[in-house]
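Design request, tokens follow.
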């Protein structure tokens, strides 16, 4: 074998998707739930499907798990077409928000159920159950029954039951959605730690963007049954390609502006109501002079200047609220146009009060430009949710 061939072969295997979706469509009669979904999920990846209610994310997970049938397209796992395989014959296990534990069985029997169905020997089953319970820190609860457990404990048992079968991919459908905030945050970190230890590929569905950002290697943001953007948490936050993604991921100030000219690696824009900045653009098309676009300015992209010196690149406004956040102070600054900007200042020496007049500028290289599409803003109620939402609930039931 030529020198380096082994390394090249290993690298090629590492880059082979463990899960591949090609031109996936799903319809319920005349209702389009999913359209033209193209995804590659890599081995050992924590991959999250994120979006508002009714966007099709749970439908997509059920298609992967085999609980729904495709209208058209293909789903493959390591090159194997899964189209005609029922859930029990796919190399996946699913953890649902409802836990779906057998109340009359002990915790150990619940975890062992899948192994028993698969014909695994008693000694091997006991070993694997003990290891699964150890992973989720439930070793002492093997003889208890689900009704005696807290919500967080039942979710751990459901996770152990899924992991005990050693699936190549674990599917998780909003598994922490029914838990209170503090417990949900604690289990988020445990999920991430377990995924790191096992190296199992996780495909995780949630509507909580903070949860997605803290857990994921990559995130697929969905809207109206289609992929709005796919990337790392950092990419989605710093390099949004649409107003929808910019507004959905993190806090953002969205300002109307007009493109003036190309300036180095960015574009100089003038904001409605005054002020200029040079901003990068990651959208599919390059901005054109005089084009109306939307500027995405994160709170930390803005720097407050106490000086009132004339500066064409600055904004002038009045402080209408001050909120101390510990590591930073949040100032709500109202511009002359009436728009209120969220500005975060980490300089504890700059103490401002309500009513103070201030000027602030955009940090060099910060912010982003996205197409000026008002319809792409996050909907108060996603129209698809009135259709796909009830469909999703009926299927899960």
């Amino acid at each position: 074998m030529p020198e380096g061939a082994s390394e090249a072969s290993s690298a090629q295997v590492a880059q082979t998707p463990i899960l591949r979706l090609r031109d996936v469509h799903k319809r319920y009669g005349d209702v389009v739930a999913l359209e033209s979904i193209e995804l590659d999920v890599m081995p050992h990846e924590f991959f999250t499907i994120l979006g508002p209610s009714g966007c099709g994310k749970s439908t997509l997970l059920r298609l992967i798990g085999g609980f729904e049938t495709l209208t058209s397209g293909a789903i493959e796992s390591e090159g194997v077409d899964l189209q005609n395989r029922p859930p029990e014959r796919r190399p996946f296990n699913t953890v649902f928000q409802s836990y779906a534990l057998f109340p009359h069985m002990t915790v150990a029997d619940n975890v062992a159920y899948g192994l028993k169905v698969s014909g695994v020997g008693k000694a091997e089953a006991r070993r694997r159950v003990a290891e699964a319970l150890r992973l989720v820190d439930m070793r002492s609860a093997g003889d208890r029954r689900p009704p005696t457990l807290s919500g967080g404990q039942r979710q751990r048992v459901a996770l152990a039951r899924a992991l005990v079968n050693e699936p190549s991919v674990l599917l998780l459908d909003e598994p922490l959605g029914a838990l209170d905030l503090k417990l949900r945050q604690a289990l988020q970190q445990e999920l991430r730690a377990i995924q790191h230890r096992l190296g199992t590929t996780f495909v995780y569905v949630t509507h909580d963007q903070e949860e997605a950002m803290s857990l994921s290697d990559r995130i697929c943001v969905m809207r109206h049954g289609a992929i709005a953007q796919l990337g790392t948490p950092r990419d989605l936050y710093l390099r949004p390609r649409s107003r929808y993604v910019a507004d959905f991921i993190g806090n953002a100030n969205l300002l109307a502006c007009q493109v003036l000219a190309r300036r180095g690696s960015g574009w100089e824009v003038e904001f409605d109501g005054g002020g200029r900045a040079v901003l990068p653009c990651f959208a599919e098309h390059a901005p054109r002079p005089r084009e109306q676009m939307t500027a995405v300015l994160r709170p930390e992209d803005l720097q407050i200047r106490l000086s009132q010196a004339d500066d064409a690149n600055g904004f002038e406004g009045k402080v209408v609220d001050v909120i101390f956040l510990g590591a930073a102070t949040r100032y709500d600054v109202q511009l002359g146009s009436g728009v209120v900007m969220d500005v975060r200042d980490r300089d504890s020496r700059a103490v401002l009060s309500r009513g103070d007049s201030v000027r602030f500028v955009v940090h060099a290289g910060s912010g982003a430009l996205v197409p000026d599409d008002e319809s792409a803003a996050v909907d108060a109620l996603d129209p698809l949710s009135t259709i796909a939402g009830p469909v999703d609930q009926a299927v899960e039931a």
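Comment from the thread starter after seeing the answer: thanks! The longest strand covers residues 31-41.
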